[in-house]
Amino acid sequence: MHPSVEKTLDDFRLRHTGCREEVLNAFLESGYALAHHDIEERLKDNFDRVTIYRTLKTFVDKGILHKVLDDEGGLKYGLCRETCGHQEHHHDHVHFKCEECGQTNCLENVLIPRVDLPDGYQRKETNLLIQGVCPQCQ
Ligand SMILES: [Zn+2]
Ligand SMILES: [Zn+2]
Ligand SMILES: [Zn+2]
């Protein structure tokens, strides 16, 4: 188990459950964004889909994970940095998907350029996915 699992759950005042510990561990150990089936593959115990789904929702609500829109309408999740909290996510970074290995990474230091919307359009979130080849696959 990754050393930060227990501390992270404590910091976010979350009760320790087997599913929460294992899901968080999967993210801390992978280092890149994971889709639902990637997460399931990494869990040692068998949790049902609903339990995993609820765990992911809790983590997104708390500011531990954020949604990463993948190509072809898929959804992945990425770890948040310290700046996120309950109901609040503070990041507008670019996501990069490698066509070779299929990994999607948070490029934490690459910010999405400001986009001005016409009057009457209210922005809630912005997603930018760049597809190409990552440094490991070149
Ligand atoms: Zn976040
Ligand atoms: Zn790659
Ligand atoms: Zn991200």
Keywords:
three-stranded mixed β-sheet, Arc Repressor Mutant, subunit A, three-stranded antiparallel β-sheet, single chain, alpha+beta, binds zinc ion, 138 residues
List low-confidence stretches.
Answer: none
Percent in helix: 25-40%
Main sheet attributes: strand count, strand direction, barrel closure = 3 strands, antiparallel
Assembly type: single chain
Radius of gyration: 16 Å
The overall pLDDT, averaged over residues, is 93
Shape type: globular
CATH-defined architecture: Orthogonal Bundle
CATH topology: Arc Repressor Mutant, subunit A
Structural class: alpha+beta
Order of H and E elements: HHEHHEEEEE
Tally of helical runs = 4
Beta-strand content estimate: 15-25%
Bound molecules: zinc ion
Neighbour order of strands in the largest sheet: 1-3-2
Distance between the termini: 31 Å
CATH hierarchy class name: Mainly Alpha
Give the number of domains: 1
Q: CATH homologous superfamily, by name?
A: Winged helix-like DNA-binding domain superfamily/Winged helix DNA-binding domain
Brief summary:
30% of the residues lie in helices and 22% in strands. The protein is α+β, with helices and mostly antiparallel strands and 138 residues long. One zinc ion binds next to loops.
